[in-house]
Amino acid sequence: MSYYEDLTNYEYLDSRYELDESYSVLNIGWIDGLHKYNVGNVPEQFLPRLWEYIIVPMNRTRGLHYDCILDGQNKTFVAKFQKYAIKLGDAEIRVIDEEHKVVYASPNLILHYIIDHRYCPPKCFIDAVMNGPKPDSICYKKILVEKDKSNMNTKVGCIFCGAHKTRLGFCYDIKRDDTKKIEVVEWENNIDISQENLIYNAICRECGGIFDVPLKAISQTM
Predict the structure, then answer these.
(1) Ramachandran region of residue 36, left (φ > 0), alpha (ψ -120 to 50) or beta?
(2) Could you report the per-residue pLDDT of 196-205, keeping only the tens digit for each?
(3) Are strands 166-177 and 183-186 parallel, antiparallel or unpaired?
(4) Are the C-beta atoms of 202 and 211 separated by less than 8 Å?
(5) DSSP secondary structure letters along 143-178
(6) pLDDT, greater one: 213 or 53
């Protein structure tokens, strides 16, 4: 995983976006074991709010990032919450501040860093997660989703408005967890889900709706 100091200008895979110049795009959560990072506690409702961004991945890559420096060895992590189990390390998230002037760019491994390494993001990022526009809002869609060049699939129609303007990020469907607790586990030892259960989380660029698409259905459209 690349290291970038918090609140520095984002540059990793920035060619996939065409944001208005009025927005500042800043790094958050690109940590490693060679540089000091802030340690502390986040608000009680922060993790469930952050999860809303984790299930809408941006800048997906084909490979996985491992942080053997922080964890002592290469591991693949899965975050489990509500009806999802999402593999971390192959995507980023975007969080917009309340004033719609700053876009925060983070690896989705930030969830693992917060839970397992007590990484505490800057207050401005926490405030943005708690109070900024949510990924299923029209505002978020207009600022970010329609400008994201990755994971586009025009063959999958939106179940809400019918538009063929969807972007995809995969997750693993599991039974709903009503404990309201986000858990990060090791992939190899704690979860074994076949390709038959692989589904994609789709977000419509037209209406902002989010829905699930089975892998089988996607394969049939290609």
Answers:
(1) beta
(2) 666 777 777 7
(3) unpaired
(4) yes
(5) HTGGG--SSEETTS--TTT--S-EEEEEEEEEEEET
(6) 53
